[in-house]
UniProtKB/TrEMBL annotation:
GO terms for biological process: negative regulation of DNA-templated transcription. The keyword Magnesium does not apply. GO terms for molecular function: DNA binding; DNA-binding transcription factor activity. This is DNA-binding transcriptional regulator, IclR family. Keywords: DNA-binding, Transcription, Transcription regulation. It comes from Micromonospora pallida. Pfam families: HTH_IclR, IclR_C. It comes from the Bacteria. Residues 75-257 form the IclR-ED domain. The keyword Transcription applies.
Length: 275
């Protein structure tokens, strides 16, 4: 509904609209022009200009003096850095990892992409530690193990091939795959199954079961369960796939803030080129 001719918005409504504008930025929508914003949010041009100017004045947005388009500004980076230094992503993930580890009696791991690896940002031990050293900060290479495979497999195939093609991969055990065609087969298999499973590829003594963490149709990391092969357990780690998938949905909802708020629909148009 258009704001044109409507009563003045209350301060809370104005703040909410400004937050909607910030949330509208995505990988595809990296900047806004005043007229585009007015159309997408069904508000008048002067309201759109005031919102963008106010956000830019506080550094949440940055205005290009040539194109007069607005993109995310340095305050966003500063707030993200503060959030991460105060626990941020790891603290959020703990809410899901702790009950998952308790329920499955396995180690639960949340990892995010880091070049040709995924990096563990949070882990909770269940049924005894998986390693003799802390898991947080550990890098899992793209070619070895389910924890990384669950992320790389669900990337766009062209994007994945651009990352993998021509790379020389390290061998960690006799079960590590290093041939890119074999790796591609495993990625395709993981997508078909909806999960990745590995045994002894990165660490000969461990098994892992992993699923991707999806955010608006794109993988942003992986959630995995890990266990030591010794001593033997009465159940198969793959029996816990439903619990792992449920936890992944919960974590995805937390990351997308769906756990607290319903998304506000905004017509996302393709950015236009400046003339």
């Amino acid at each position: 509904m258009s704001d044109t001719g409507a009563r003045p918005r209350s301060p809370l409504q104005t703040v909410d609209r400004a937050l909607e504008v910030l949330l509208s930025f995505t990988e595809r929508r990296r900047d806004w022009g005043v007229l585009e914003l007015a159309e997408a949010f069904a508000i008048d041009k002067s309201s759109a200009q005031r919102i963008l100017a106010a956000l830019a004045a506080r550094g949440f947005l940055s205005a290009d003096p040539v194109t007069r388009r607005y993109s995310l500004g340095p305050t966003m980076w500063r707030m993200a850095a503060v959030w991460e230094r105060t626990g941020g992503l790891a603290a959020l993930a703990q809410r899901v990892l702790e009950p998952l580890a308790f329920q499955t009696d396995r180690t639960a791991i949340f990892a995010v992409p880091d070049g040709l690896h995924v990096r563990c940002v949070a882990a909770v031990n269940g049924g005894g530690p998986l390693r003799s050293h802390p898991l947080v900060g550990e890098l899992y290479p793209a070619n070895a193990g389910a924890t990384s495979r669950a992320y790389f497999a669900f990337l766009d195939s062209n994007e994945r091939r651009a990352l993998i093609s021509g790379r020389v991969f390290a061998t960690f055990t006799e079960l590590t795959r290093t041939d890119e065609h074999e790796l591609e087969r495993l990625f395709v298999e993981a997508v078909a199954q909806g999960y990745a499973y590995s045994e002894g590829e990165y660490d000969y003594a461990t098994r892992a079961l992993a699923v991707p963490i999806m955010l608006r149709g794109r993988p942003v990391g992986s959630l995995s369960l890990g266990e030591s092969k010794y001593p033997a357990r009465p159940d198969d780690i793959r029996d816990h796939l439903p619990a792992l998938q449920t936890a992944a949905e919960q974590l995805s909802a937390l990351l997308d803030n769906r756990a607290n708020n319903s998304a506000v629909a905004v017509r996302q148009t393709e950015p236009t080129k400046a003339h």
